[in-house]
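User: Okay, second chain of the day. Same drill as before: sequence in, structure tokens out.
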Amino acid sequence: MTENGSSPTGRRALLLAAGSVGVAALTAACSGPARTRGAAGQPSASSSPLSASPGGSTPACVLAVKAGAGPYYLDLDRVRSDITEGRKGVPFRLDLTVVRVSAGCRPVADAAVDVWHADHSGAYSTGGSAFLRGTQVTDGAGRSTFRTIVPGWYAGLAPHIHFKVRPDRRTETTSQFFFPEPLLLQVYARPPYAGRRAPKHPNARDDRYRASGAAMTLAPVPDGDGYRAAYTVGIA
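Assistant: Same drill. Structure tokens below.
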């Protein structure tokens, strides 16, 4: 993995190392049986569960729901692990592992993983700013780590973190993570989030969460004065 907190590194150049070309369909890791159901209620095939890692992990390698990138995606080629850029909020560490489901959940090295989300006030970086945005390139074990904050809410949507996986130069998969509602209510009672009145049910009002939240919700655990979570993302 490459970390650069100041000067951007070209992701396109780094992706030259990604050799295989396939159809990248997002899958996610969620605890439970090796078969799960998608948004339409249809069963999804999966491979054998992965071993759980401690601390808010989701161990099973199963198919899950894809989602659009939304209007705020920016292709900035900014490779770094810490994406906070000084934005205030409850610290959050996200550990991702990318695996290829069609190859028995084998880890995928040299895959670019983009992450972006809103700040504590629900605002996204735009134009020349790049806070709470960044890219990591997975290591030989398919791992990448992002250090950020718990996102705020906006526009009646469940708080979420967008992500995009690019295993090579021609394929990509996009989805988003959600947070457990009890954790959000605890976080939003703390500064700086407490400066706004939080919704009583920040997740339930979003039909996207109702459709895919069971598969795409993280399982954070305390980590210092913040939280951390691990998630295994599968591609076809």
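The CA atoms of residues 72 and 130 lie 11 Å apart.

User: Thanks, on to the next one.
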